[in-house]
Amino acid sequence: MAITPCRPKWRGTMTDRERFNRQMHYQPVDRCFNMEFGYWDENFTEWDIFVQNGVRNNGEADRFFNFDRIGGVGGNIWIHPAFESKVLEDRGGEQLVVDGNGLIKVVPKDGHSTIPHYIGSTIKTPEDWYREKDIRFNRHDPARKVNVEAIKKAHPPARDYPLGVHCGSMIGRIRDMLTFEGVAYAIYDYPEMLEDMVETSCVLVEDFLDQVLGEVDFDYASGWEDICFNHGPIVSLDFFEKVVVPRYKRIGSRLHAHGIDLWYTDCDGDVRPLLPGFLEAGINCLFPYEVNSCCHPAELLAEYGKELRIMGGVDKLELGKGPKAIKAYLETLVPLVERGGYIPFCDHRCPPNVTTADYLYYLDLKEAMFGLKE
User: Fold this and answer.
1) What are 240-255's pLDDT values in tens digits?
2) What's the predicted TM-score (pTM) here?
3) Which of 100, 217, 280, 342 has the largest count of CB atoms under 10 Å?
4) Alpha helices in 72-170 (DSSP H)
């Protein structure tokens, strides 16, 4: 089903690609880059505006709201083949399942969004890891071969939108595979195993990058590293700095050698203790930057200056409080947008408690404040 936009694209005098690159490098732009991070799954069944217009996912929502276009390319840089997903036990309103990461977890049968309750993991010991590594992390698996020509065809050099290359995760996906508790124990019980996992993650990313860098003209790099909560990192700083940061540096060297100097990572929670290591390695942008578990984006941008960029940082809790609160919060972001190196959007997926009327008000207000001026 074709998606018909519900509103005009923001007017502008630059292409989306020019605007994004200039804004993220503190150069003058015609207007702010206009994007959002997406929505909870429930929004697509609860928001009338989505239901009535056949909008079923975040990609379709981007086209529906006519946001600026931003693209990304990724490779097969994690588990392959994945563990078989299956139901182990029916518990009435819940099910005990095994997922693709080999995690055993309790999930609601109705499928509503919630953080699963993890019971255990398939990989616990070095014996488990090395057994599964040979099967699921084989760097020579044919599935890891990239179809570079297909990427070039899909994203030609003359495109008018920014394109990113995904650099994966050095420890966040490992957390997904071992659980929070499993990583915490492994740092002390099986440090060699855990470092080998990080090294394996790095090598798989390097293998992917070696196939595409120099072949495709990328504007930025992206990553995913959910290793913080509202009191800071879930891994020790010593482990992060000695084991994780050196692998980031290896990836950063490849990116910089091909002219990519903007690299964001998606790390929720209070990221402040990790920022020095991120910046040292070349990760210089936070995305989608959650506010309540950390601080207002202005605080970090003031502390780190033009070393740091932020994408996101619009407090989702304020979006749920109505027009007055939305306007008051957006006004605090005006100096950041004017400064550059900052693109405002909801600080994670927009939840369904935000009404469609308030969300449309938010989008209209964003355009009035950050759109093209007459």
Assistant:
1) 999 999 999 999 999 9
2) 0.95
3) 342
4) 126-136, 148-154
